[in-house]
């Protein structure tokens, strides 16, 4: 069975974006980049990876899930951001923009979609963001891979949106600190 991994950059205080959705403060250079890419190849948009000379082949995922706000960050310039992956965007009120031919848009229950994807053959499923989608599928998340950045946002989009749900236990499988200050924390559902 395929696994769902929530792989995302996050601040020390638990935010995946600032109050206005900004994420440009996350460290995009440093000694953490190459080792993390070696483990999570293919997790950059196709054009960005090509511009950086990074191969998107042989990564752990063949499918990426996003909420509309995460997807819309690259619009209108990049309506098909992860062309090397199957892309599914969860939205209830937005239409597919022009040029988004390789992107599936759905208003279906995210849990049902994730369960169907897990039953299919293939590589892992990457939950790219955001916090509301992560909360909706929290019971289906098998692994967490958190690129903990050495900064505080104080407010913004949390790793998981607030909600009334039961606690879930994860156990660490690896914690890798880098000189840049980034710490890659990897967990598996207990």
Automatic annotation (TrEMBL):
Coiled coil: none annotated. One of its GO terms (biological process) is riboflavin biosynthetic process. It comes from the Bacteria. Residues 4-184 form the Bacterial bifunctional deaminase-reductase C-terminal domain. InterPro entries: DHFR-like_dom_sf, RibDG_C, Riboflavin_Biosynth_HTPR. GO terms for molecular function: 5-amino-6-(5-phosphoribosylamino)uracil reductase activity. PANTHER family: 2,5-DIAMINO-6-RIBOSYLAMINO-4(3H)-PYRIMIDINONE 5'-PHOSPHATE REDUCTASE, DIHYDROFOLATE REDUCTASE FAMILY PROTEIN (AFU_ORTHOLOGUE AFUA_8G06820). This is Dihydrofolate reductase. It comes from Microbacterium ginsengiterrae.
């Amino acid at each position: 069975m395929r696994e769902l991994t929530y792989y995302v950059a996050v601040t020390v205080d638990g935010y995946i974006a600032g109050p206005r959705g900004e994420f440009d403060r996350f460290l995009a250079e440093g000694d953490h980049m190459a080792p993390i890419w070696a483990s999570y190849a293919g997790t950059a948009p196709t054009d960005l990876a090509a511009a950086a000379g990074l191969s998107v082949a042989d990564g752990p995922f063949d499918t990426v899930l996003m909420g509309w706000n995460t997807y819309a960050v690259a619009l209108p310039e990049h309506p098909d951001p992860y062309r090397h992956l199957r892309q599914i965007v969860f939205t209830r009120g937005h239409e597919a923009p022009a040029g988004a031919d390789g992107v599936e848009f759905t208003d279906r229950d995210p849990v049902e979609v994730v369960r169907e994807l897990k039953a299919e053959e293939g590589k892992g499923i990457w939950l790219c963001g955001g916090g509301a989608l992560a909360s909706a599928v929290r019971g289906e998340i098998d692994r967490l891979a958190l690129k903990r950045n050495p900064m505080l946002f104080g407010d913004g989009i949390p790793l998981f949106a607030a909600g009334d749900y039961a606690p879930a236990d994860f156990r660490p499988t690896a914690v890798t600190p880098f000189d840049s200050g980034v710490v890659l924390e990897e967990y598996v559902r207990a």
